[in-house]
Amino acid sequence: MKSILFKTATLILLASSLFNEASAQKASAAKVWTPAKANAWYAQHKWMSGADFIPSTAINQLEMWQADTFDPTTIDRELGYAEGIGFNTMRVFLYSLAWQQDKAGFKKRVDQYLAIAAKHHIQTMFVFFDDCWNAGAKVGLQPAPKTGVHNSGWLQDPGNRERNAGENALLEAYVKDVLTTFKHDKRILLWDLYNEPGNSGKKDASMGLLANVFNWARAVNPDQPVSAGLWDWGFEKLNAYQASNSDIITYHDYTDEKSHLKTIQLLKTHGKPLICTEYMARTRGSHFSNIMPMLKQEHVGALNWGFVMGKTNTIYAWDNPMPDGTEPKEWFHDIFRKDGTPYKTDEVELIKKLNGK
């Protein structure tokens, strides 16, 4: 997902504002995990490494989860690739319309996904809401990818449906039903409540849904920690709320190692474990070779965006479409071709080494 360049000055400002805002969040923060509880939880897990995952046969979250296009065969094969390089964590986006369409079937498919992931010794981080890319979504057949365009079919959730009468009640029911069903499930590592709130020009307009989803999650009180990743250092109000209400600090950073390390150093001031839930954009200086070893050294979980090249077209850069569909000389994201062949053998060997494979 697209992220602005990290600026040292705004990070310093954020670090200050986070602590100032935290005192204003007492109602919600009363149940937030303490640093001691968060660090005890983190110590029970191996170093977390993995990717943001969607099967190569799905253009978006609806295509992944709808009954007609749910593809356990591909999921099993591609999570096998992940197991083969030692990945133990995958971040996976859910979708509210798939639940509204078929509540029981949706939860059955989520359980089926978790069973496949567990077979490959992979825990899952599920995402509920998202402010990235396309605001309009319709159930049923999803569009074909736009040739050479990054994430041409990816969907915001709820996107423009948030304005619909009764939508908030549906979203609350969705979050609480899924959390209640899986609140004790050890196959789930963490609930990522909201991906990149404020993206797509929304900025602070996303605060209402962000606060709601944290409140809904606290009402259910799952065994697993909840979080919402920091990603744009200009969004001071959103960032302060996310950081002060997250059990574990998660964040996105697509910059080079020098800038990324500054982000880590400042976020560590919260005294809680860190998981980077999006990194690795080769043409922007964020590579496995310079970022992943640093994340391991700093005891930060490492989940890169993109896994198997497919319908999401994330081998292409955010802002550099290739209308003729030519494969870029340097892939933006992704690790494997569909047949399991690595894009870069040296990257895969490094990942395996870091994961002890």
From TrEMBL:
Signal peptide range: 1-22
Gene Ontology MF terms in the entry: hydrolase activity, hydrolyzing O-glycosyl compounds
Name of one Pfam family that matches: Glyco_hydro_2_C
Biological processes, Gene Ontology terms: carbohydrate metabolic process
Keyword DNA damage in annotation: no
Superkingdom as given in the UniProt entry: Bacteria
Keyword Signal belongs to the record: yes
Entries under SUPFAM superfamilies matching the protein: (Trans)glycosidases (SSF51445)
Keywords: Signal
Glycoside hydrolase family 2 catalytic domain span: 163-287
Name used for this protein in its record: Cellulase family glycosylhydrolase
